[in-house]
Amino acid sequence: MAEQTWLRQYVILERAALRAQLQYRVNFWTTLMGGVAYQGTQLLFLGVLLGKFGLIGGWGFSEVAFVFAMRLASHALYVVPFGALMFTDEMVRDGEFDRVLLRPVNPFLQLVTRRFQLMALGDALLGFGALAIFGWQAPVDWTPAKIGYLILAVVGGGLVETGIQTFFCGLSFVATSTFSLRIFADSSITQFSGYPLTMFGRATFYAFCTLFPMAFISFLPATVLLGRTSDVPLPTWLTTLSPLAGPVVLALGYSFFTKMMPRYTSPGS
Amino acid sequence: MSTAEQVRAFRGMTRAGTRSVLIYRGDLITGAVTLVIQVVLAIAVWRIVYSGRGPVDGVDARTAVAYAAIAACLQSVLLPWQFSSLPMRIRNGQIATDLTRPLGLIWQVFGQNLGVLLGRLPLGAFGLAAAAVLGALTLPPGWAAGLLSLVATVGGVLVAMLCNLIVSMVTFWTFEVGGPLIVYRFGSAFLSGSLIPLWFMPGWLRASVEWLPFQAQVYTPVSIYLGQTRGGQALALVGVQLVWVVLLTGLLELVWRRARYRVVVQGG
């Protein structure tokens, strides 16, 4: 086993997981649609809201939709490769994690390849589609440098979300059921990270930069691209560096995960 | 089994459902905190879009904010993420035991779902309390509206439970039901008017939403409570709920009759 790199292990396990999911045809198509419906209703909501009210926190639809698209593309980069983290809870509770510990592969790698999240493909479809459309319509003069920054920002955002979810996985070793917490993270990010986050007031905004670092997922880098860094109560250089938060949050989340894992206790006999 | 015994069995299923929610206390607490945060943010969003503006489409800021808060709480009680154990039971073969029980399967599942719903009620109460603290709640315009909205809430719950049950039944055909459930959950979150009230929807969208059962779940009770729908119109909306309850019960019966012949018991 030792001669296999972890990337190779990942590919093998993930392919098996995908094959398992593709067995249920109807489910495959409806789940794909589910991904689109989940995120699509949010876009529809923003469209109806801003169609009626014009501006929110001084931002118009083209700007909000651009943040939404960046967020969704980032989300796809988390959920396609790492979405199975969602099931950690269940595995810890049912004691299936015993099996993970017995196998000669990194436990984290086994967790992320546990089950392929089909819904993720719907997210990816809508996310990258929306990014192409709303990126085009956003008030940004695109240059190669800006496109490069956009790519870094989207990848960084994906890593932030992965980091947050990995942290929750660590928590599930001691808390048994973290399902609500996870749903909370997921639905808060879905529902609220598209807004100009500064509109919730300074204290809430700082909380979104630290406690629950949702601001790094798309809002902060988007202000750089949209030329709106003056809206943000942070120094411009710091806002510009926001894509770097991705690796930092992931490293923190992962170290918490490895620290908590030894505290796993097998349920039942 | 006599009727009295059946009622007792049904009540037993309901209790089991409630217990299945209440046993994960940590989960329940985070659920409540989550709902509170979401209610607070939703209130903030609506206050910000209105910021000093007068009524839009005849709806003032107070009403829109109260709607957002109440609808979010109602939605979280009506549409939990894991609302039925039926799909799991079909997948792992437990359905065989369920079918041999003296109480019909539909009633078992219905009882269990009702229990889950009751167990989640305190959660909704938490959300409402937070909204009240923030001054986002308003009282109904009168006793009649208040009473009617209560009736409409029960109607909404029935419609929601019937819809949930019908969607869960799909598992008899597909085994994996994650997909249909997700489409249903998010489709209905928007179509029930819990994200945005029907008042603000463009004409074409509103017209299509009015033909679907989802608006009966959240929009009908909340808009009656807030006095946005009054008098004959309000009664008509409750009438529509009743029609949906009858239609969906018929559909459930039909689906179940066919599903019975599709039962495949998995596992040895």
TrEMBL record, chain A:
Where does the chain cross the membrane?
68-87, 118-136, 167-185, 205-226, 238-257
Has keyword Membrane?
yes
Pfam families (UniProt xref):
ABC2_membrane_6 (PF06182)
Any idea which UniProt keywords this protein has?
Membrane, Transmembrane, Transmembrane helix
Concerning InterPro entries, the annotation shows: ABC-2_transporter-like
Q: What is this protein called?
A: ABC-2 type transport system permease protein
Q: What is the lineage of its organism?
A: Bacteria, Bacillati, Actinomycetota, Actinomycetes, Propionibacteriales
Automatic annotation (TrEMBL), chain B:
The keyword Transmembrane is assigned to this record: yes
Q: Which UniProt keywords apply?
A: Membrane, Transmembrane, Transmembrane helix
User: Transmembrane residues, as ranges?
Assistant: 21-49, 61-81, 117-137, 143-170, 182-201, 234-256
Do you know which InterPro entries this protein is assigned to? Answer: ABC-2_transporter-like
Q: Name one Pfam family in it.
A: ABC2_membrane_6
Please report the name of this protein according to its UniProt entry: ABC-2 type transport system permease protein
Q: Which organism is it from?
A: Kribbella pratensis
